[in-house]
Every structure is written in C-alpha cells, then in structure tokens.
Amino acid sequence: MKPAKSLKKGWPIRTWVQLVFFAWIAVLAVGKGLAEAGVDIPFLPEVSLHAVCPFGGVVTLYNLATLGRYVQKIHASAVVLMALVFGLAVLLGPVFCGWVCPLGSIQEWIGKIGRKLLGKRYNRVLLPRTDRVLRYARYLVLVWVVYVTARSGSLIFSDFDPYYALFHFWTGEVAPTALVILGLTLAGSLLTERPWCKYACPYGALLGLFNKIRLFKVRRRPASCINCKLCDRACPMNISVSTDTNITDHQCISCYACTSENACPVPDTVVVETRAVKRPAESGQTGGSL
Amino acid sequence: MRQRQKFVPIVIFAVLLGGIGLAKLTGVWATTTNRNPARYNSGSFAGQYNPADIRGSYTFADVARLFGIDEQVLLSAFALPADTDTSQYRTRDLEARYANLDQEIGNESVQVFVALYKQLPVVLDDTALPEQAVDLIRGANPDLTQEQRGWLQAHEVDVSSVSPPAETVSSTHAAGEIQINGKTTFQNLLDAGLSRQQIESVLGQAMPATNQTVKDFCLAENLPFSDVKNALMVLLSP
C-alpha cells in the first residue's frame, strides 16, 4: 500500500469556487438594493435573487404548465438555471449544493468554528437513528413548498426561506419567520454540518435524488481500502462511505471531501467515476445501501 | 471515466455560463417580468396588444413603446410635468399623485386612455380621466361612439387643483391589508378571508384554479378588472 499523501496547504479549490458564487450573489443583492434606492452602479445588472435561484424554476413549473405564466417574482432565468443545475446533477450529482449554493457555503464556514469548539462531538450531536429519520424531513418540506406554490401562484416559501433572508436581512422585506429560520440555521451550524441542507432544504432534497442516477458517482474500491474510515469522518453529511462501494446516498453533496484527492490516504481508492465498482460477494466491508 | 476535483469548477462554469449564454442568444433568458401585455385573440384587432392588460408596474415609457404613443402625449394626458422620467414613472404611481380626488385616476385610467386614443376595443369601467386626456382622445379619435362620448363626459376630472408630491410615491397600505392588483391570485383572496361563494358572486361564475390571478381571469372572461376589484375590495373591507 502506498503511503498517505501529505496534507495540502491553503484553501481547497472548492472553497474558492464557493467564495466566487457567494460574493457574486452578495454583489447582486446589494446592487439590487442600491438600484431600488436610486443609486445606479455601472456594469452591475439589476437582478433580483429570485431571478437567479434555480429552485424558483422548480416551484413555478406547475403554474407554467397550467397557466402559461410564472409564479410571482419568478422569471425565465430561474427555469433556465433549474435546467442547467439538473444537467450538472445528472453528470456529477448535487455539485450545486457542495460547490455553488451560498447558504450551504456559509453554513460550512460557520461549521469550522463549531468544529473547533466541539471537537469530535461536532457533527455528531443527534442520535444516529433520530438523525437518519430527520434526514427525510426535507422531502416533506419539498412537497409542502411545491403544493402551496402551485395552489396559490405566489412565492409563499420566501417567507420561510433562509437563503433569501441571508441576502436581504437589512432591507426590511424579509419575513420574521425567514429571519428566525436563518438564525436557527446559522446557530445550528455551530453544532452540526449544514443543518439546513441535511434536514430542511427542499432543493437539496430534489437534487439529492440525482445521486441515484448520476453518471459520475463516488466509488470506493474495497481491494485497496485500508478501512481507516477517514472518508466517513470527512463527509460533512455523515455518509458512511467506508461501508459501501458505489455511493448513492441522497444526502451526498459531491464535495469530494471523502475522495483520495482529499481525505482518503490511499490513491485511487475513493474516486468519482462512471465505472461501477463490483461489490465483493463476501466482505465484511460491505454495508447496506446508504 | 474519472472526474477529478480540479475539473469540477470547469464543468460547473462551462455548464452555467455556457447555458446562460445560449439562453441569452436564443432570447430565452429574462431576469425581469416580460412587459408585453396580452394580445386580442379574436376580431379585427387580433394580434394587437390589449390595453386592458397594461399592468400597474408598467412605466409610461413601456406604454408609449408598446402602443406607439408619443411619451409627451401620455404625460400631458395625465397632467404630468414634461420632464418626468418616463422610464421610472409607473402607471400605478398616478394613484398616489391623485389620491385626494373623489374619483380614482390610476392604472385603469391609462388603460382606458390608450384604448380610446388608439381606437381599440375597451370595456368602460368606473375609473376617471383628467380633462387633458379627454381632450386628447376627442382630438385623436373622431369615431367615438355615443356611449364613449357620454362616458368621457361623465368621467372627466379637473386635476388643475391637485398639488402632487414632488417625487414619485407608491401607495402604502397598512400591514396585513390585502391590495388587489395584477398579481393577486384567487388563493390570495381566500387567504385574506373571502369565501369561494363570495368570490363567485362577484365573478358571476365559477372561480377558476386558485393559482390564477384575478386580472388574468378577468381578461380571459372579458370582465372589467376594476369593477371586479372594487367589488372584491368592498367584501374585504371590515
């Protein structure tokens, strides 16, 4: 077995990508606010966050199909982005969650403080069984959001949306419920990794389903695996990578943290590729479907 | 085939930027509301924009562009200063400007003005027009019917005594109070406390899907939106 690779210095490339998208959305939100206040910033498009949120494309589909109109505040751009993010998810899974979504990013960054405060207890605060059941709550949220939007033709979810609240908290336009949910999400990030993504995000729930069909899946090769479980510990979503071969867990955010490019010390053992890894017929390393 | 981490950003940016670029090239990309009203779908005006679908969010510049009316004509029709920024002044801003009048001058007034000025079909409702607008219509439309002439006479308003605020002001309303506008859906009305029976009594027919806007329904069923709106507001008032 090859020795463990040395730790890389500096921020990983994913953090840079997250920063770019976070900054871009923040600039758009501030620019829109300034434009509405009559301050014109050259070269800055006056775009509302609803226009660049791909989840808006999802919730407007029913209205579009039945009435030929978008839900209030949603525009064609949201539907285009929805299609593009679905395309990405078919290829690589929910990379939108792991690399793009600013709300996911800020939870992750706050989580670094929580990790320092709680040490090994961080991201393991709930009983496994409770945690496992709660992971499906986001599908209830998804069904509820789609239903109330279809019924009302209004963007009701914006009154609860922590993403909208994050970039508009200073405007006075944000419903108190959304501010409370944002506060709970950020505070919860000190205890566990990405609490909103794990338990409540309706868009993450939908994108998570693509883990079942994505072309490039996370694969673990039992033949070279040394069963050190570093992949499990690295996974922000608490997926037990070390007990499966082809990772199709609906919670995977395609962050690459578990792979041999990051946590896994053995080269070419945890990889993202199209070719399926055959599960050993008799191996103590194999686990149930995640 | 393997996908290494360093190529993920390339794929993300290629798909997102490439897709957005393609959507822009094909005219699909839009980050703001499409400011094109519905068109007449039958009769000799089929295919032309229907002024009844002018929304309160349309600016005077939008209305001028869509219906081929000189911006200065629109400004003078509604007694607005000639240097008004038509790209910022929305038709619903008229409501705040003329809030002190007994009759309402607002978006519906613009709809009626445009229809009569351009000799387009119109359902005359309970809105009002400044005297200047009525004079312009009489000058531009020699084929006014007797009914239209009578309506204009009954609904023209002297706005010379109005001293409007210097800046554009949108009307504000008490928290929790529903204001019916072009975006109000039937579900919004139900949520505000109206029953299905009450809404249907105003419509005179069955209520459509709850996600439909009242305005779209009125347009499709040829009902005067302002009349429906006023009747619903009466039901909603405490």
Secondary structure layout:
The complex is a heterodimer of chains A (290) and B (238).
Chain A: H1 13-36, H2 54-59, H3 61-67, H4 76-92, H5 95-100, H6 102-118, H7 128-134, H8 137-152, H9 162-168, H10 176-188, H11 195-199, H12 202-208, E1 217-220, H13 230-234, E2 246-247, E3 270-273
Antiparallel strand pairs in A: 1-2, 1-3
Chain B: H1 8-25, H2 60-67, H3 71-77, H4 93-97, H5 107-117, E1 129-130, H6 131-140, H7 146-155, E2 156-157, H8 186-191, H9 196-203, H10 214-221, H11 225-236
Parallel strand pairs in B: 1-2
The tally of domains of chain A stands at 2
- Between the first and last Cα atoms of chain B, what is the distance in angstroms? 67 Å
Helix content of chain B: 40-55%
Largest sheet of chain A: 3 strands, antiparallel
Residue-averaged pLDDT of chain A: 89
What this model shows, in words?
The complex is a heterodimer of chains A (290) and B (238). Chain A has 290 residues and is mostly helical. Chain A has two domains: 13-210, no CATH class; 217-290. Chain A is built from 13 helices and three strands; from the N terminus they run ααααααααααααβαββ. Chain A has helices at 13-36, 54-59, 61-67, 76-92, 95-100, 102-118, 128-134, 137-152, 162-168, 176-188, 195-199, 202-208, 230-234; strands spanning 217-220, 246-247, 270-273. A three-stranded antiparallel β-sheet of chain A has the order 2-1-3, with no helix packed on it. In chain A, 47% of the residues are buried. With 238 residues, chain B is mainly α. In chain B, α3 (71-77) crosses α6 (131-140). The radius of gyration of chain B is 22 Å and the shape is globular. Chains A and B meet through α1, α3, α4, α5 and α8 of A and α1 and α8 of B.
